[in-house]
Amino acid sequence: MASNAEVVNMTQGGLALYGQDPMKVQSNRRAMWGGDVNSDGAVLYTGNNNDRDMILMSIGSVVPSNTVSGYFTEDLNLDGVVKYTGVNNDRDIILQCIGGVTPTNVRFTQAP
């Protein structure tokens, strides 16, 4: 950590945040939105440079039911397995992040 870095506890309710829905709220806790697999500042489910395709590529790009064990950037739920389909898959986290209904929505990164 840099000597001038500031520690920010995003779970604190009194922390000033900016933008529209800058944090995900779950059980009275605030956290960063997940899903920006390619770290480009935007969460996309469809279109060019989308994050969903990166999950598919990490499991081999051919059989969507394949899995890869280990902690990779594509492991969005941090369970140690990269999954594209099935229960607890990582692809659904991207869809939930952008609203869950319209797959063409985009969520942009917002820092506190």
How would you summarize what this structure contains?
The chain has 112 residues and is α+β, with helices and mostly antiparallel strands.
Shape: globular
Secondary-structure element sequence?
A: EEEHEEHE
Terminal Cα span: 18 Å
The computed structural class is: alpha+beta
Strands of the biggest beta sheet: in what spatial order?
A: 1-2
**Average of per-residue pLDDT values:** 87
Major sheet characteristics: 2 strands, antiparallel
Give the % helix: 10-25%
Using DSSP, what is the number of strands? 6
Low-confidence stretches: none
What is the rounded Rg? Answer: 15 Å
Total domain modules: 1
Report strand %. 15-25%
SS element count, helices = 2
Structural account:
- The protein has 112 residues and is of the alpha+beta class.
- The chain has one domain (24-108).
- 12% of the residues lie in helices and 16% in strands.
- It is built from 2 helices and 6 strands, in the order E-E-E-H-E-E-H-E.
- It has helices spanning 52-58, 91-97, and strands at residues 24-26, 29-31, 42-44, 67-69, 81-83, 106-108.
- The strands form 3 sheets. It has a two-stranded antiparallel ribbon.
- The mean pLDDT is 87.
What secondary-structure arrangement, pairings included, does this model have?
Layout: E1 24-26, E2 29-31, E3 42-44, H1 52-58, E4 67-69, E5 81-83, H2 91-97, E6 106-108
Antiparallel strand pairs: 1-2, 3-6, 4-5
Give the key terms.
112 residues; alpha+beta; two-stranded antiparallel sheet; two-stranded antiparallel ribbon; 2 helices; 12% helix; globular
